[in-house]
Amino acid sequence: MKKEIFKIAGKTLKSRLIVGTGKYKSFSETVKAVNASGADMVTVAVRRVNILDKKKPILTDYLNPKKITYLPNTAGCFSSEEALRTLRLAREMGGWKLVKLEVLGDKKTLYPNMIETLKSTKTLVKEGFKVMVYCTDDPLLAKKLEECGASAIMPLASPIGSGLGIQNKINISMIIKQSKVPVIVDAGIGTASDASIAMELGCDGVLINSAIACAKNPVLMAKAFKDAVVSGRNSYLAGRMNKNYIAMASSPSKGLI
């Protein structure tokens, strides 16, 4: 089988699993989980995880940004202005242009504010950023984001940190079929089987944070997600059998004794 190439905004990645760096007990645990996951891209909440202030413990001392791709994100931002300011700071301080945009609507649901998200995407693209965008699972709005120049569409599976898994497979499938940029399921994944389902639907990748960091054994769970993503992708590429509503014998009837 021809070796697959996974690219986002021209960046080639070995793994289709992207992992977050928040909620871990320590930077040391973060590193162990990231290594176990096999991921070569990690998201970093610029407002919550220290990557800029060298007077305090800093993530870059534990995860070398020359060996793993950092993806600064705007977690915790509730307006376009906040998100733009955060990512401009990340570019100024770290040179990062490939970013994840996340503009939340309210603190209870943490659903994306899609009006602010669309506005922010347009501005960031004009400023030369390569923007991976967290969004609702609305196919129409996902297409609008692509038309605005988004480098990747990142629909939620279910609310952030809920662990509920994919609640709307139909919408995710519609987004996949219409998109010409990578589709990466983000938010709500709870366990390895959820990641496999996302990949079997045809997603280009998944982004996991809470499901690994909040597991009883984060390092082992990271390994489970690594295997699940590979398995789910292979299952998608292999092509599942057709569904039938009556039984069909697994062995041929010809030549029965």
The ordered H/E elements are: EEEHEEHEHEHEHEHEHH
Instruction: Return Rg in Å.
Output: 19 Å
Q: What oligomeric state do the depicted chains represent? A: single chain
User: What is the mean pLDDT?
Assistant: 90
- The total of helices stands at 8
How far is it from the N-terminal to the C-terminal residue, by CA? 39 Å
What is the share of helical residues?
25-40%
Strand coverage percent: 15-25%
Residue windows where pLDDT falls under 50 for at least 5 positions: none
- Global geometry: globular
Task: Report the count of strand segments.
Answer: 10
Reported for the largest beta sheet, the result is:
5 strands, parallel
Can you list the strand order of the major beta sheet?
5-4-3-10-9
Structural write-up:
This protein is of the alpha/beta class and 257 residues long. It is built from eight helices and ten strands. The strands form three sheets. Strands 5-4-3-10-9 form a five-stranded parallel β-sheet. It starts with 5 loop residues before the first strand and ends in a 19-residue tail after the last helix. The mean pLDDT is 90.
